[in-house]
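ok trying this again, last paste got cut off
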Amino acid sequence: MDRSAKISVSAGDVEFDLEGSPAEIEERLSHLRHDDMWGLMIDRLTAAKKEAMNGDGSSSNRTEVVDRGVAFRTLIEKNSLNKKPDQVLGALHFLRDVENIMDSPPRIINQLFEDAGIDPPGNLSLYLNRLREREFLVIPDDKDDKNRYAVLTTEGKQHLNKKSTK
């Protein structure tokens, strides 16, 4: 079985063509992210996204969804939240502290993952209950033990902070 991968990105006259094993691709991407050309490419893609979103009258809602997904994906990647429980914890942090959404049923959390282009967690209650057992989440007493109102504890915030400093 061939375990090779290929990534091609073109933004105007800036192009990246990477081919090799997934580990080789990841290493090359890591080096590219520190290069000036990467920043130039990101700037061009951002400008193209803005231009595309301004093409018709329904752009503001689509822009919010795209920006929301990009922001959440950036949080996940920047903080190395690779495991699904950490991603769920990150999602709750994002909803509560960034978007100020305090009532987040599973469909809201799953939509956030979908907006970011990340596979949704599936059995969300399982992840939330495990995070509660680890004392990373707590549900306020007046919310009848409903997971949709879970908030990060100090330990949960510290756990995310530790991930971001690695």
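PB: full thing came through this time. The domain at 71-166 is CATH 1.10.10 (Arc Repressor Mutant, subunit A).
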